[in-house]
Amino acid sequence: xxxxxxxxxxxxxxxxxxxxxxxxxxxxxxxxxxxxxVLYLLxxxxxxxxxxxxxxxxxxxxxxxxxxxxxxxxxxxxSLQILYMMDEIDEPDLTLKAIGHQWYWSYxxxxxxxxxxxxxxxxxxxxxxxxxxxxxxxxxxxxxxxxPIRIIVTADDVLHSWAVPSLGVKTDAIPGRLNxxxxxxxxxxxxxxxxxxxCGANHSYMPIVVESTPLTHxxxxxxxxxx
Length: 227
What we know:
- By secondary structure, this protein is an alpha+beta fold.
- The protein is 33% helix and 26% strand.
- The chain has a 5-stranded mixed β-sheet with strand order 3-2-1-5-8, with no helix packed on it.
- The two termini are 32 Å apart.
């Protein structure tokens, strides 16, 4: 959950989000090194007198041609690795289907019989003390901790987007099309997200709440809800 005046990312709650944060830090250090070098060269050119060495310097031209290519490779390789990791879905323990509506979400646990429900935002007037305004829902998604979860995302009317920042998940919900992604929660907790695609007047009233619990608690919850 993000805090007020927070400049960084939310705490990672999945392996994918940990990789994304590490890549962000890596890219930021590369950008910092480039900016420092450019600032140093600009200062040097302003402070020093120009000499004939800068007029015909093939070695310098060779360096500033090869160096950017090396930098791009250093950024591209980890980026491609993370993209392949995000697309890889290998034998999930649980499959969940999310359907976007104006303006609420419907969920179906496809591995269970008749385990479906709608998830609406809790109005501010009905919000219990200590809960987050515009983020709390009447029915949370409950998933087992440390288990591969596949989520299939689609929409019933207009474009939506199912996004939970702390899990590193963001998938567009498109009418007539099924998109899928996966995540693994590394710790128990409650993780908040929102629809990230402008979908109409009440776009900001489509929160997403994922509750990660131990497997025994998830089995008790699913049994209770199915009965």
